[in-house]
Amino acid sequence: MKNIIRDIEKEHGIHFNFIEEQIDNIEITPPDPSFTLAKKIFYLEGHTPLHFDVIGGTYVSVSLKKTTEAPPESEMKVSLEEVAVDKYLTTGISKKADGVYQIKPKKLGILPGLTDPDVLQTMQQIPGIYSADETVSNINIRGGTHDETLFLWNGLRMFQTGHFFGLISAFNPYLNDKIEIYKNGTSAFYGESVSGVVAISSGLVETDSTTCLSSNMIWAGFNTKIHTSEKGVLTLSARRSMTDFFSSPTYKKYYNRIFQNTIVTDLNDNQAINFQSDEYFYFYDTTVQYQQKIGEKNELSFSAIAIRNSLDLYESTFNSGITISKNSTLGQQNLGAILSWKTNWDAKNTSEISIYSSNYNLDSRYENISNSQIQKQKNSITDTGLRLAHHYMLSDLWKFSSGYQYIETGVRNDEEVNNPAFLKLSKKVLRTHVAILETDWKAPDRQTAFRLGLRSNYIKEFEKLLFEPRMQFSHSFNGKFRMTFSAEQKSQSTSQVVDLQQDFLGVEKRRWVIADNAQIPIQRSRQVEIGLAYKDKKWLVTFDNYLKKVQGISTSGQSFQNQLEFVKLNGSYLVYGSELLVQRNLGRYYVWLSYSYNNNKYNFPDYIPPKFANNYEVSHMVSGALIYDWKKLKTALGAKWYSGRAETTPISTALTPNQPGIIYNNPNNENLGDFFQVNFSVSYAWKLNKKNLFEASFSILNLLNKRNTINRYYRVNTATNSAESVNTYALERTPNLSLKLQL
Fold this sequence. Notes:
Blueprint: H1 2-12, E1 15-17, H2 20-23, H3 37-47, E2 50-55, E3 59-64, H4 73-82, E4 83-85, E5 93-96, E6 101-103, H5 119-122, E7 129-131, E8 139-141, E9 150-153, E10 156-157, E11 162-163, E12 168-169, E13 176-182, E14 197-202, E15 210-215, E16 219-229, E17 232-241, H6 249-258, E18 265-266, E19 271-272, H7 275-278, E20 279-294, E21 298-319, E22 322-344, E23 349-367, E24 374-395, E25 398-418, E26 421-442, E27 448-459, E28 464-477, E29 481-492, E30 494-497, E31 511-514, E32 523-535, E33 539-554, E34 570-586, E35 589-603, E36 611-613, E37 620-630, E38 633-642, E39 646-647, E40 670-671, E41 675-687, E42 693-701, E43 709-717, E44 722-729, E45 734-742
Parallel strand pairs: 1-3, 9-14
Antiparallel strand pairs: 2-3, 4-5, 5-6, 6-13, 7-8, 9-10, 11-12, 13-14, 15-16, 15-45, 16-17, 17-20, 18-19, 20-21, 21-22, 22-23, 23-24, 24-25, 25-26, 26-27, 27-28, 28-29, 29-32, 30-31, 32-33, 33-34, 34-35, 35-36, 35-37, 37-38, 38-41, 39-40, 41-42, 42-45, 43-44
Helix pairs in contact: 3-4
């Protein structure tokens, strides 16, 4: 038996854990070498008194059976099929057989430049996912804008994803249990996105109560899980910035990055004001979750979250012996709650019902010293609804699901100016009824899987019915290769636009709007993808190719800062590309290298020329890392390079006296310089006793302190009557230190 186990380990790159005495006297005929791993383990189950439990697709725990009866083949194989790649980039990241990327922060290894398992920073390591301006509030999945991605926390739609206006994730990194990321092949139960889906879940019931205290150079927080009864658990978390009373080196770097070229800084010389005396900034997030099992078949769960950024800006000037002061404010918050009930009727039937509400508010008040003008702006969006779902297992290999969703979305935009007097209020509501059908099928050998779904959206206000078919197919062969094919149609009725670049103090310029089926159309997308993966004990290679078209976009939703900034046009973009990852396991070391290519072009039919490069096109992107991960010590050194984003240059920087403004070349006619950054991280853990763990992590972003330009626009300099460029630069060399105590 031991020889058979060793042969299987070598052939399939897995590891068996067993007690020598339990297998010493077992002798059987070896399984057929042509069998898949699943079939071999099923064979061993049926011919020995042993039970095999596959963990994460890599480790197999061997134990004596409690009875002599072997489990059904389908029951044993479920854990094998769950994960196609169990160590993608680092431990804690896996790629499932259906193409979904799964991140488990509590098991997450180390990545270059990160001290905490920040999910929105971590996902940017995956090929095809990046941030054009290095913020988590502007994540681009395959060339789409941030608002085209659906972000969910425990089923709640989140309209705010970042703290510090995008430099830090708004989700407590030590609270989350699992994150699933879809680039294509999305389940029909997900709507309101034309790009990807990021589904975050937290608060799973655990055996023991736990508490975690954590802090870094920006914030401090805690999360605790308390078992209120044998079947009930309460989870609490809170995190707050220390920026209003502690100006760390990390904070100063972040401050200079996020507030450059905004009202918070002086645009004349681009120097930051004295933030220690003139501004008051903080953020926080807090959550409460409760789960209760009722009897053997029912489970009740409740989750609530509150996220807030707050900035108070005090400025003054001394003129003719008089001190003039102004106070400007900016507030951003997301509040939400969801109540769910789940019933397992029997071994084949499961039902779920949820009611929820998520509300986002963005408020600003700007006082202008020079003309005593006060401008107030407000943007709010509320998403409220009901979800019903039923899952029926036709067999161990075939599942059928159906569902109904009711979604009510309201958006409000207010603007008020005192001098000259101006007031504009707008509010719109859409109500959508959704019917869902989906089926999942797997072949008896578990090597082939197929999911087909249909989402039907009926928008009451427009009397419009939208059909969205979804499909995902995968097939494994030779035990090492896997081929996947995905296709989908999706839509969304809410999006973000920029009216003026200096709205909301120029810090959070985007506001949510809702489709009116005329000037603001419903966005629709179609995407197809084909991928191939190879994996053995030492190598992992994945290669994906995709084509995506998104219709119904607007120029105001693309953050133009050229001749299209004040032009309202609707159009589309077409993007196609490839994503390659090569990963090599070297024992305690492993190394990976990824390359992404995309060709992303706009098409605005009412503009000449109608087709030109997308603002978020990054034609070539390369990243890689060398990671050492052994017991208590982990280190990571990595780098990323990508070609510069598009910019629009003036025909001439010299302006004539009668010229109304800057005359530009065709949109996005040139590109910024290439981006290059080297990052480093190291962490060490001390086990204080059986239960308590202390971990310290240190990182340096932009180790070489390279000055990368991530955006450039032009404005008129009235003193010289010329067009001058204004650059936005990426983070300078930024150190950070993180401490975590697990109790």
